[in-house]
Amino acid sequence: QNDWERSRAQREREERLLVTAWYNMGLALQQQEAGTAWSRGPASGARSFLAQQRLVTAARRARTPHGRAPSS
Q1: Residue 4, SS3 per DSSP
Q2: Mean pLDDT score of the chain, rounded to an integer?
Q3: In the chain, N or C terminus with fewer CB closer than 10 Å?
């Protein structure tokens, strides 16, 4: 029983460390991108994540599915 509890506690600590590392890495990348986008300026086509996703979605909807005409 005691070994099982220690093992579970260790797994939980490792999981928290992994989640924290992923969060910190994502935050660092986001800050790096923001700094890069800021230095490029808005005129160079820098877009937010949501703006990029809207463009991808619009492009996907504009494509004809499997060679058929889009239904409107």
Answers
A1: helix
A2: 79
A3: C
Give the span between the Cα atoms of 46 and 39, in whole angstroms: 10
Instruction: Tell me the C-alpha distance between 12 and 19, whole Å.
Output: 11
- Indicate whether 41 pLDDT > 90: no
Q: 64 and 70 in contact (C-beta within 8 Å)?
A: yes
Q: Which amino acid is at 33?
A: E
Q: Where along the chain do its domains lie?
A: 1-35
Cα–Cα distance measured from residue 15 to residue 13, given in angstroms and rounded to the nearest whole number: 5
pTM over 0.70: no
Q: Are 55 and 47 in contact (CB under 8 A)?
A: yes
